[in-house]
Write a structure and sequence with these properties.
The complex is a heterodimer of chains A (about 300) and B (about 110). Chain A is mainly alpha-helical and about 300 residues long. In chain A, about 65% of the residues lie in helices and about 0% in strands. The relative contact order of chain B is 0.14. The chains are: A mainly alpha (about 300), B alpha+beta (about 110). The interface of A and B includes residues 87, 153 and 157 of A.
């Protein structure tokens, strides 16, 4: 099926910045690699709203409640857009949701952890979304054009979430000693998962997603970019990441840090995180409770 | 379920720009979904929701980018020649310092830059 010269031409096309549209011919391996990548991203958006959803009813003011509700709505919207991109690569949405619920596919490590105070909501919206947007901006130029276009819209919305999160954190650090302590505790809890989030260093020359330009930056580059922007932004408001090894080489600009706990990352993303079972359980319940909606919509007479 | 492609207009008089696509059982629900995805932040004044089936995709490079010289259809095919010929003509009539703001030359140069 995959004619070698056709594959070669395709590889050259994407390696030199060429784009791929859904109707275009592509090697089966490329189709699967893009689909797997986008599906994991969609899963993360869908699961990522659960930690924040828990705080909608407990938001401290009406404005915060509106902002948080809108953020949750945005993230579910991102999941919808991304599942559509993945679906166009020949895997039905139903199958993707079932794989997620059965634990056969993954979602990002940061969404397997509990949120213990309102400060966690601020730290998630600011720093988790910031770490995510560093990765997402590197996807704007993805060789798979529909993914890049979707990322454009997603990045716009994420930047609002980051503002919302930074505003929450700033409000709290300017508040009482107790509020400041809540923020410090939240940073303490989230720093480890944040440092693991982009994944271990990989050999870029052996990464097919990079060769095909599905993504354009390797894991360590993304982590360095995140540290470069956000460590100073934390320090300027009196927050210090809980890592005694964290420092920047003044000549090269390179950040060194304590090696993240990759065993924890692996264990968490394979469904053994502190909240993995509970959150998937909630999704399963939700999936069953909304079954009648899907069935109604799917059985509606076609009016088109 | 059918795939609908969504186009959005950012402001009145602007072009309809492709936004993305969605899956819906009929046109009415497709319109609602399109509004949720592409009109929730007041970022669109108009949406076009089109069944993908209804779109004829033309992307054959033999049709769109034939390997022929098409410069005679573009300003750039003339601007260089015009400069050279104009200089020769001016020299011929002994008017080397003629008006540089000649509208023909000006528009030719603008075309070349565009």
């Amino acid at each position: 099926m995959n004619d070698p010269t056709r594959v070669q031409t395709f590889n050259r096309h994407v390696a030199t910045g060429g784009k791929v549209e859904p109707g275009d011919w592509m090697p089966e391996e490329y189709r699967q690699a893009v689909r797997r990548f986008v599906e994991m991203h969609a899963n993360s958006e869908l699961m990522g709203v659960l930690p924040e959803r828990e705080w909608i009813l407990r938001a401290p003011t009406l404005k915060r409640k509106l902002a948080l509700t809108a953020k949750v709505q945005d993230e579910v919207g991102h999941a919808q857009l991304l599942y559509r991109v993945a679906e166009d690569l020949d895997k039905p949405r139903e199958a993707m949701l079932e794989d997620l619920l059965a634990g056969r596919t993954k979602f990002h490590n940061v969404f397997h952890y509990p949120t213990e105070s309102w400060a966690d909501v601020g730290i998630i919206a600011w720093l988790v979304d910031a770490a995510a947007i560093v990765a997402q901006q590197a996807l704007l130029e993805s060789s798979y054009a529909p993914y890049g276009r979707t990322m454009k819209k997603i990045c716009c919305e994420e930047s609002v979430h980051i503002m919302h999160g930074r505003d929450v954190v700033l409000t709290m650090v300017n508040g009482t000693a107790r509020q400041r302590r809540l923020v410090e505790d939240a940073l303490e809890r989230w720093w480890g998962p944040l440092m693991q989030m982009h994944g271990p260093r990989t050999d870029p020359s052996r990464d097919r997603d990079l060769a095909w330009r599905i993504k354009n930056k390797d894991n360590e580059t993304l982590r360095q970019e995140f540290l470069h922007v956000y460590v100073p932004r934390l320090r300027e408001i009196g927050l210090e990441p809980p890592d005694p090894e964290l420092r920047q080489d003044p000549d090269t600009g390179h950040w060194s840090y304590t090696e993240p706990d990759w065993k924890e990352l692996y264990s968490v993303v394979t469904g053994h995180g502190p909240k993995s079972a509970e959150r998937l359980g909630f999704r399963r319940l939700n999936y069953e409770e909304t079954r009648w909606v899907r069935e109604t919509v799917l059985s509606a007479p076609r009016a088109a | 379920m059918e795939i609908y492609e969504v186009f959005r207009q950012e402001k009145e008089g602007g072009p309809m720009i492709h936004a993305g696509n969605l899956l819906a059982p009929d046109a009415e629900l497709a319109a609602h979904y399109a509004r949720e995805f592409y009109g929730r932040r007041q970022e669109s004044v108009r949406l076009w929701v089109v069944r993908r089936e209804a779109i004829t995709d033309v992307s054959d490079p033999d049709l769109l980018k034939p390997p022929f010289d098409r410069s005679f259809k573009k300003p750039v095919g003339y601007s260089g020649e015009i400069k050279r010929k104009l200089a020769a003509a001016r020299e011929r009539v002994g008017a080397a310092s003629a008006d540089d703001d000649d509208p023909v030359v000006a528009s030719g140069q603008q075309g070349a830059e565009a």
